[in-house]
Specification:
Number of helices: 13
Strand content: 5-15%
Distance between the termini: 32 Å
Structural class: alpha/beta
Helix content: 40-55%
Radius of gyration: 19 Å
Order of helices and strands: HHHHEHEHEEHHEHHEHEHHE
Largest sheet: 5 strands, parallel
Shape: globular
Number of domains: 1
Length: about 260
């Protein structure tokens, strides 16, 4: 059964453990040997990283929070993208790239669709286009350039595709966070049934247990968002800092996009 404290560390715990493990060359060498050709050596070979692993980098409030956390634990903030993944509208994270949360001039909270979901269904994210004809990835990277967040980004699509089965994928992914960095994510509590339960029970838990059995310690994972958020808090993480938010609002007005008021009660 899921135990949040058994998976996620506090920021203070992660900072202390990362310092100790990064300076443990014997441990790092053992991890690198286990990873073999799957080691992402080009960004783990000089300084410890804090990693946010999502499909596409966009400077929402969640990214800003991650950036601040990375600085606190003395790690370089790094955003790993999977732009070659397939767009499907029922995936809320992917859909959120095309349905933006904004705050209007009068304080109204709203959503605005910048892409046609039906027309982009099953395209690679890197090939998805907006209603204006721009590429989705170019739009979000432009937002990043407008923000105050200085985070290294890289599209790791080839690495993701080469890992095969999900059980292998998460084992090799989580190995990177034993001694070389900290993963910021949410592994959610699950009931006895449902897709989340299957994912945690059959994929994540066995990968963590395998690492602990082999190396005697667990990967460094920090919870990205608090448990049991209300709708207002959820909207906040998806929305943007004021300067980026205002730019999106003006962009939407300029291109005659429709705002839909959000009722968070």
């Amino acid at each position: 059964m899921f135990d949040d404290k058994n998976i996620h560390l506090s920021l203070d715990e992660a900072r202390e453990e990362l310092r100790k493990r990064w300076n443990n060359q014997k441990l790092k060498s053992a991890i690198e040997k286990e990873l073999g050709e799957h080691l992402l050596s080009d960004f783990f070979n000089d300084k410890p990283r804090a990693i946010l692993n999502r499909h596409m980098c966009s400077p929402d409030n969640g990214l800003v929070f991650f950036y601040q956390c990375a600085k606190y634990i003395n790690a370089i903030p790094y955003y790993s993208e999977f732009i070659g993944d397939t767009f499907v509208h029922f995936n809320e994270e992917k859909k959120g790239l095309g349905r933006l949360r904004v705050i209007l001039d009068d304080g109204t909270k709203a959503m605005v669709d910048i892409m046609n979901f039906h027309e982009n269904e099953l395209r690679e994210l890197g090939e998805c286009v907006l209603k204006t004809g721009e590429k989705l990835v170019d739009f979000h990277h432009l937002l990043l350039s407008l923000s105050d967040v200085d985070v290294e980004t890289r599209d790791n699509t080839p690495w993701f595709r080469n890992l095969g089965h999900a059980s292998d994928f998460y084992y090799f992914l989580l190995l990177h966070f034993v001694a070389h960095g900290v993963l910021f994510t949410n592994f959610e509590p699950y009931e006895e049934d449902g897709s989340e339960a299957i994912f945690m029970r059959d994929i994540i838990d066995p990968a963590i247990q395998k690492i602990e059995k082999r190396f005697g310690i667990k990967p460094l994972i920090v919870r990205m968002y608090p448990l049991n958020q209300n709708t207002e808090e959820d909207f906040y993480w998806w929305s943007y800092p004021k300067n980026v938010n205002d730019w999106i609002v003006e962009y939407a007005k300029k291109n005659n996009l429709t705002f839909k008021k959000v009722d968070l009660k």
